[in-house]
Recover the amino acids of this structure.
């Protein structure tokens, strides 16, 4: 049974008129058995947990000593209870899972208590940043659960969580997380200001935030690190960075970041520093190989075949004897084929996608060689380049690497090795000018900082990383007592 509000407030009346069109709107009338005081409960059924209403609120309101609305917070055993006289709070509170209580005869005074329905999946293992060693927890779509995961790992009072609401329609909650005693306030102010300046209808994922607050929105390079791992977020916060968690998104954001960090897997810190440094160097070599190997093949066969050893040249000539296309078309054909297979495998269901990727690659590759469309040498090169691109630990950076191969190919076809060097100089100039939340993106390579090189191309041991990164300008540069970290003599020595 729906009983309308008394028509004293035009705003409230207009709100009720709109809400009444929805089937999940509830406006119920009750009478207290002891005091005979009549009251209304108003809520959105799809957003509230009716078990909380019927078990933790309604019995106390019906059988308790309810005389005035001020008695409600003392009667019901719910901590999140608030009394207000502002009718503008009604819409915001109702659509955040709160229940509105009103006493008949005093409808101007409002009381809200929280009965939010928690709908979401359980915490699982990371799917994009999986690691063999280390924690197996991943963020989910609930911001409360994600904040809980961060709070558990940093249980200190200095951990500050600021909450904003972004989106004129979606009203998405966004949390800024940082350590007050460590994080540079300038970084916090930059993130806060950019988030507050967002004027958009809706935010459905943290990816929207990345694109809007990045320093250069026209750059293919990701300027903010996104991750699904709570341990990586907490490590970044402790280091002096600022984290952003968006309600409804299983990926958190960390900034400022650097180019080198985007090629670092968080599993590197769970392994011995020698092993992790070796893997990191392999990863950097694989990325370089993935970008340059196909353009070098095109440039060499088009302009610089005299650089190829005679034995290898004869094998290349034999493999391309029946190929009717120039090297650039041959390379583009295979590169686009690989991208089509990768995109099809990502969009199809998991089991079907795996089959398409494996079988499609084998069938198309073999058929193209037998049909004389491509050479078997280039097929091997393209396959190795695609395999090398998969070593990038950050998904967004992997997409950038896939994209960079095409302009390098174009410049290689136009000017050979000179074109490759020219395209590399253009990319390097762009990276030097790029910033992340106002901090240098290419640090510690440029500007060169020896202290930060200890965790850049290689990762030294923890006792050699006693200082936080210089580019973060943290309030507390030291994070480890170097004297305590030194090896001490055994008691018997």
């Amino acid at each position: 049974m729906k009983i309308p509000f008394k028509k004293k407030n035009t705003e409230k009346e207009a709100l009720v008129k709109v809400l009444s069109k929805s089937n999940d709107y509830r406006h119920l009338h009750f009478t207290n058995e002891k005091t005979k005081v009549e009251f209304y409960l108003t809520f959105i059924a799809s957003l509230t947990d009716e078990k909380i209403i019927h078990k933790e609120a309604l019995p106390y309101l019906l059988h308790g000593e309810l005389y005035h609305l001020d008695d409600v917070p003392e009667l019901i055993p719910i901590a999140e209870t608030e009394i207000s006289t502002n009718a503008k709070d009604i819409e915001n509170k109702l659509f955040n899972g709160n229940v509105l209580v009103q006493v008949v005869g005093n409808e101007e005074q409002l009381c809200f208590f929280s009965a939010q329905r928690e709908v979401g999946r359980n915490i699982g293992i990371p799917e994009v940043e999986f690691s063999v060693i280390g924690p197996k927890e991943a963020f989910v779509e609930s911001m409360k659960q994600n904040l809980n995961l961060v709070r558990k790992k940093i249980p200190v009072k200095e951990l500050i969580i600021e909450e904003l609401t972004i989106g004129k329609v979606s009203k998405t909650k966004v949390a800024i997380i940082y350590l007050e005693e460590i994080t540079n306030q300038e970084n916090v102010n930059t993130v806060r200001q950019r988030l507050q300046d967002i004027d958009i209808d809706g935010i459905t994922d943290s990816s929207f935030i990345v694109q809007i607050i990045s320093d250069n929105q026209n750059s293919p390079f990701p300027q903010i690190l996104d991750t699904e791992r709570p341990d990586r977020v907490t490590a970044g916060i402790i280091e002096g960075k600022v984290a952003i968690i968006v309600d409804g998104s299983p990926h958190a954001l960390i900034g400022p970041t650097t180019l080198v960090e985007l090629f670092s897997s968080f599993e590197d810190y769970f392994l011995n520093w020698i092993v992790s440094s070796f893997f990191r160097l392999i990863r950097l070599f694989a990325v370089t190989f993935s970008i340059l190997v196909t353009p070098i093949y095109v440039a060499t066969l088009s302009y610089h075949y005299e650089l190829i050893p005679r034995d290898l040249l004869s094998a290349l000539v034999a493999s391309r004897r029946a190929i009717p296309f120039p090297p650039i078309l041959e390379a583009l054909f295979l590169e686009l084929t690989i991208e089509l297979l990768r995109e099809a495998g990502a969009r199809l269901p998991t089991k079907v996608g795996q089959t398409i990727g494996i079988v499609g690659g084998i069938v198309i590759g073999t058929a193209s060689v037998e049909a004389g469309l491509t050479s078997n040498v280039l097929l091997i090169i393209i396959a190795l380049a695609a395999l090398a691109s998969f070593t990038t630990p950050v998904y967004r950076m992997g997409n950038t690497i896939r994209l960079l191969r095409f302009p390098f190919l174009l410049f290689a076809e136009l000017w050979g090795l000179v074109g490759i060097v020219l395209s590399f100089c253009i990319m390097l100039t762009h990276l030097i000018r790029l910033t992340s939340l106002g901090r240098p993106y290419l640090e510690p390579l440029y500007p060169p900082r020896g202290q930060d090189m200890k965790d850049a191309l290689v990762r030294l041991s923890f006792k050699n990383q006693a200082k936080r990164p210089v580019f973060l300008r943290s309030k507390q540069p030291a994070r480890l007592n170097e004297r305590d970290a030194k090896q001490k003599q055994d008691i018997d020595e």
